[in-house]
Amino acid sequence: MSPYGKTAQTAIAAVSRLAEVYDPARRVKLNSADIAENRHLPQPVVAKVLTILSQAGVVNGSPGPGGGYWLARPPEGVTLYDVVALFERLDDNVSCPYGPQYCGTGPHCPLHFDMLKVREQMVTFLKTSTFGRFVGYTPPAAPPAPPSKGAKRSLNVLPKS
């Protein structure tokens, strides 16, 4: 159901697996074969994705026998955006369904502003969703905002019929 390519999907799957085994008390390492087997993914692609994630500082790794990968930060400190942005273009450009020469060179197509809104919603979702969600982490609830001065309270009373 992801709107992104297979490489970004593989990266999300790999990081979500590392989030599942994350333990702040001890470093749990998984190699690319472990992750590929658990997520039913091709091992060479998982290995390539983990290398890119390691270079970006999302995961750490150690080579050789007994080596493997682990999250560089707790799962709630890694957003989906941190991962997807490494594999997908998330810039402000939205592909026009009328073709690349339509929007921006004349009037906007009929879908232009709706597509911009969907893109903004997706980026907001990616930036606010962490891998903590994969392991049941729930962020603390924000305290309710105090009422503004001069605001009247509404009792939401329904009129009698």
UniProtKB/TrEMBL annotation:
The keyword DNA-binding applies. It comes from Urbifossiella limnaea. Residues 138-161 are annotated as: Disordered. The keyword Acyltransferase does not apply. It holds the Pfam family Rrf2. One of its GO terms (cellular component) is cytosol. Signal peptide: none annotated. This is DNA-binding transcriptional regulator IscR. Keywords: DNA-binding. GO terms for molecular function: DNA binding; DNA-binding transcription factor activity. It comes from the Bacteria.
